[in-house]
Design a protein that fits this description.
This protein has helices at residues 5-28, 63-85, 106-110, 117-120, 126-134, 147-158, 241-260; strands at 36-42, 48-55, 165-171, 176-180, 185-190, 194-196, 202-209, 216-220, 223-229. It has 262 residues and is α+β, with helices and mostly antiparallel strands. The model has no long low-confidence stretch (mean pLDDT 91).
């Protein structure tokens, strides 16, 4: 029976790191941390109001490093599986130069060349090969949305540059805007449903009837924050970081379980 310890430990470490990172995300954007402020502005006659962000604290520089470590451990867990289960035609074990192939197109995967799937899994039994086959992104309805394709692009990208994130906000429909004293009415000029969180960025702008320079606006924003991969990694741009990392971790865990049944 093959030993799955190394692959399982890599996955466990990735899950531990992902849990820590998710907690850091939540702590950073908590009300107590005051990572940002919301500033209310109005023109001289109080007929137009707008709200902007002020960034008090920038996200930690280590976040991209932590993401890279999680991605590395998940990728290694898959490669360890193929290495552990590979045996040469002469019975030699393990076989060097193997890897868990990840392909977007079946033709490339089936290629018999050095970069094709058969070369990477040449020492696997038919049963083990079948598992790898089923895991390929090209078998998915939307191959580009497959967790392993995300993993491959992130892994390749992290080898050459930081995998950066961009913070977004989402203003819920339950957000409450009130004026003291009460105004006649207000109407939206620009709606701040959500967007990229940037210093000085405008959340929304409204036109107000019946306000004076002494009028005060009170706003309960009901905001949600999220960290997305930015344009530094085109394959996963605008995809939530934790959705990718946690989803990929679950997928890798399922693959390990399949190999464990062989």
């Amino acid at each position: 029976m093959r030993d799955l310890t190394s692959a399982s430990l890599k996955l466990s470490r990735a899950e531990e790191q992902a849990g820590k990172l998710e907690a850091e995300f939540a702590d950073f954007f908590s009300t107590e941390n005051k990572a940002h402020s919301i500033l209310v502005h109005k023109n001289s006659d109080a007929s137009e109001w707008w709200v902007t962000w002020h960034i008090n604290k920038v996200p930690p520089d280590l976040w991209p490093v932590q993401i890279g470590e999680i991605v590395h451990n998940l990728r290694c867990a898959l490669d360890y599986l193929v290495y552990e289960f590979s045996t040469s035609a002469t019975g030699k074990w393990p076989v060097s130069g193997t890897a868990f192939p990840i392909f977007l197109e079946e033709k490339a995967y089936r290629s018999s060349g050095q970069g094709g799937g058969p070369s990477a899994i040449r020492g696997l039994t038919p049963e083990a090969r079948a598992i790898v086959d089923r895991c390929q992104p090209f078998t998915y309805e939307i191959p580009e949305a497959h967790y392993l394709w995300d993993l491959k692009k992130l892994s390749n990208g992290d080898k050459h540059r930081f995998v950066n994130v961009a913070t977004t906000y989402d203003m819920k429909s339950s957000a409450i805007i009130q004026f003291e004293p009460k105004v006649n009415r207000f109407e939206w000029i620009t709606s701040g449903a959500g967007g990229i969180l940037e210093d000085g960025g405008e959340l929304f702008r409204i036109r107000v009837a019946g306000a004076t320079p002494e009028t005060v606006m009170r706003w309960d924003p009901h905001l949600d924050f999220n960290n997305l991969f930015d344009e530094s990694t085109p394959a996963v741009t605008s995809v939530p970081v934790m959705k990718v990392l946690n989803g990929t971790g679950r997928f890798v865990g399922a693959v390990i379980n399949e190999f464990a049944r062989l």
